[in-house]
Design brief:
InterPro entries: Glyco_trans_1, Glyco_trans_4-like_N. This is Glycosyltransferase family 4 protein. The protein has two domains: 176 residues, Rossmann fold, CATH 3.40.50.2000; 172 residues, 3-Layer(aba) Sandwich (Rossmann fold). Helices cover 44% and strands 16% of the residues. The chain contains 14 helices and 13 strands. Helix 10 links the parallel strand 11 and strand 12.
């Protein structure tokens, strides 16, 4: 069965959510489906989608009742016999909901955040979708058990890693040399937008304790964000200016993962973070906070080490343990890679998405 799919995205940023959308569109296009992206003019996703050969529809998306977007989007869906309209953010969930009603096409809502959705009369958008997709099982359970979503209308489809292309292009030694890392340095890598929910402050405070015990430890922070200046000032105040590198936005994440000795995630809220599935597939031992869907990827003591959110001492202890136990690092790396290959591949994500679309079109 061939599908005609429009994805909508209000965000103009570039993070895990946008990366998943792009990967899904590219894979579905490669499988012979017709795919379009509807987004704002300045969206980074638009530029990357065009480069991948995906047609981009530009609309204002200026608010949830924006008729300048709703009406032409609905007209496009009718004219092009679109069967699935798949929304991804708050504003475009409303716009896509109204457009799908006008176009009489099926509405799928992908929920990327592990936050509650309150089904109330004033939030009637939550009743419009034929089906809601979450990026993890914990997120699905929250919507069903605590937010009133019918169990039959919510499916967990974890974000998949492209096992063919997500791999280091340069060898470990050359990347470490570029980063100024000596062979004896213990490099901790953290990848993510520098914003409050990622809790870079917790990471820096934990690393400060670690560095006092391991002067050869180094912290690599890959990513940009609104809190970067504040975190740079915090690192300076902690005396870590020579031990912490703010790398900014990077396109060579697999290379960085190959160069680091362990991966760190300190978020206070997550769905199923792509950086964890990617890191495990790259074979990097990982310490992560046990929030949201993280425990679906990091099985404690099997594929990584879990610690409570905000637990500075717990994070430090876990990092010290990885540093001192090479056998543990090797074991976690091997089981983590196998876990991702089995459960979190791009192929598995696309297969599940196709099955969902088939079921929607067959039963509605």
């Amino acid at each position: 069965m061939t599908f005609r799919i429009v994805h909508t995205e209000w965000s103009d940023g570039w993070g895990g959510q946008e990366r998943r959308i792009l990967a899904e569109m590219i894979e579905m296009l490669a499988r012979g489906h017709h795919v379009w992206l509807a987004t704002r003019a300045d969206a980074q996703l638009a530029t990357r989608a065009k480069a991948a050969g995906i047609p981009v529809l530009v609309f204002p998306f200026s608010g949830k009742f924006d008729l300048r977007t709703i009406i032409p989007l609905a007209a496009f869906c009718r004219t092009n016999a679109v069967g699935i309209l798949n929304t991804h953010s708050g504003i475009d969930a409303w716009i896509g909901g109204f457009a799908s009603l006008l176009a009489r096409c099926h509405l799928v809502r992908t929920r990327h955040l592990n936050l509650p959705l309150h089904r109330r009369w004033y939030n009637f958008v939550h009743y419009l979708a034929d089906h809601t997709v979450t990026c993890g099982e914990v997120m699905r359970e929250n919507l069903v058990k605590h937010c009133g979503f019918p169990e039959s209308q919510v499916t967990s489809i974890p974000t998949g890693v492209d096992l063919k292309s997500f791999k280091a292009r340069r060898n470990r030694e050359s990347v470490r040399c570029e980063l100024g890392l000596d062979p004896h340095h213990f490099a901790v890598l953290m990848v993510g937008v520098i914003r409050a929910v990622k809790r870079h402050e917790v990471a820096l405070r934990a690393f400060s304790v670690l560095h006092k015990q391991l002067p050869n430890a180094r912290l690599l922070l890959a990513g940009e964000g609104p809190m970067r200046q504040g975190m740079e000032e915090l690192a300076q105040s902690l005396g870590l200016q020579d031990a912490v590198q703010f790398l900014g936005h990077r396109e060579d994440i697999p290379d960085l993962m190959s160069a680091a000795d362990c991966l760190l995630l300190t978020s206070r809220s997550e769905g199923v973070p792509q950086v964890l599935t990617q890191g495990l597939y790259c074979g990097i031992p990982t310490v992560a906070t046990a929030v949201g869907g993280v425990p679906e990827v990091i099985l404690h003591e099997k594929t990584g080490l879990l610690v409570p959110a905000e637990d500075v001492n717990g994070i430090t202890a876990a990092l010290l343990r990885l540093h001192s136990d090479q056998a543990l690092r090797i074991r976690l790396a091997a089981t983590g890679k196998a876990h991702v290959a089995e459960k979190f591949s791009l192929e598995a994500m696309a297969n599940a998405t196709e099955r969902l679309y088939e079921n929607i079109e067959a039963t509605h």
